[in-house]
Automatic annotation (TrEMBL):
<feature type="domain" description="THIF-type NAD/FAD binding fold">
    <location>
        <begin position="13"/>
        <end position="145"/>
    </location>
</feature>
<dbReference type="InterPro" id="IPR000594">
    <property type="entry name" value="ThiF_NAD_FAD-bd"/>
</dbReference>
<protein>
    <submittedName>
        <fullName>ThiF family adenylyltransferase</fullName>
    </submittedName>
</protein>
<keyword id="KW-0808">Transferase</keyword>
<dbReference type="GO" id="GO:0016779">
    <property type="term" value="F:nucleotidyltransferase activity"/>
</dbReference>
<dbReference type="InterPro" id="IPR045886">
    <property type="entry name" value="ThiF/MoeB/HesA"/>
</dbReference>
<dbReference type="Pfam" id="PF00899">
    <property type="entry name" value="ThiF"/>
</dbReference>
<feature type="region of interest" description="Disordered">
    <location>
        <begin position="229"/>
        <end position="251"/>
    </location>
</feature>
<keyword id="KW-0548">Nucleotidyltransferase</keyword>
<feature type="compositionally biased region" description="Basic residues">
    <location>
        <begin position="236"/>
        <end position="251"/>
    </location>
</feature>
<dbReference type="InterPro" id="IPR035985">
    <property type="entry name" value="Ubiquitin-activating_enz"/>
</dbReference>
Length: 251
């Protein structure tokens, strides 16, 4: 792993850090949340990222998307994200697909090639399709549900989809998955109700600190899962807890 990402070695040890150095992750959807997921994973030193999105940067993206700047307006989301990621880690493999994931394009992807899939697509139908195909491919997937129209990032939570109680997107996806016999999926959702929305509010948008927190939480869940799969025989948390218990910090 490159020296720029040696912090993972210090935090978790060489063996588990090397797991990230081999990890192949696909991020479907590169909006406010997806852009943060991709960047956070790149900064962890993963081996490769596959970026899937058919959008272009717009002025309206500047309030929530990491790579959305006045200088990038009009450019392809995946190409701007790729350039930024390669500037973070010039050794990382970045595969880009300027397309939208649906029934027509799903055949372009062999999901079994990935160690983990992150879904931040806005469409419920595409989410269901991606989750279903990931299940068939036996590839772990985490899906971002309702984070639009939220003001409190502390209400975001990683949970099983069966525990979601707020948000129309999660409700639709949960219902459709049950029809397909899929009842357990790891998701990120907000428990915040949209009580603050008024008649003059514009629904369907997200703010930088909510989208960013959601993206970082998704990336964190992916990394923890990858390290957990590779280190089940290492009582990592217990040992680290004892070691850090008496750690002193300089003020």
């Amino acid at each position: 792993m490159a020296e720029a990402f040696s912090g993972a070695k210090v935090l978790a040890g060489t063996a588990v850090a090397d797991v990230l150095g081999r990890a192949r992750i696909a991020v479907f959807g590169l909006g406010g949340v997806g852009s943060c997921v991709a960047e956070a994973l790149a900064r962890c030193g993963v081996a490769s990222l596959t970026l899937v999105d058919n959008g272009r940067v717009s002025v309206n993206d500047i309030n929530r998307t990491f790579y959305a700047l006045h200088s990038t307006v009009g450019e392809s989301n995946v190409q701007v994200a790729k350039a930024r990621i390669r500037d973070i880690d010039e050794e990382i493999l970045v595969h880009t697909y300027e397309t939208f994931y649906n029934e027509e394009t799903a055949g372009m992807f062999d999901l079994s090639n990935y160690d983990y899939i992150v879904d931040t697509i806005d469409s419920a139908a595409s989410k269901v399709l991606l989750i279903e195909n990931a299940r068939i491919s036996k590839t772990p997937v985490i899906s971002c549900m309702d984070v639009c129209d939220k003001l409190d990032p502390s209400r975001l939570e990683v949970m099983d989809i069966s525990r979601t109680s707020v948000g129309p997107l999660a409700r639709v996806v949960r219902t459709q998955l049950r029809k397909k016999g899929i009842r357990k999926v790891k998701v990120l959702c907000s428990r915040e109700k949209n009580d603050w929305i008024t008649e003059n509010s514009q629904e369907g948008d997200s703010l930088s600190f909510v989208a960013g927190t959601a993206g970082f939480m998704l990336a964190g869940a992916v990394v923890r899962d990858l390290l957990g799969k590779e280190s089940n025989n290492q009582p990592r948390g217990k040992r680290m807890g004892r070691k850090n218990k008496n750690r002193k910090y300089e003020e």
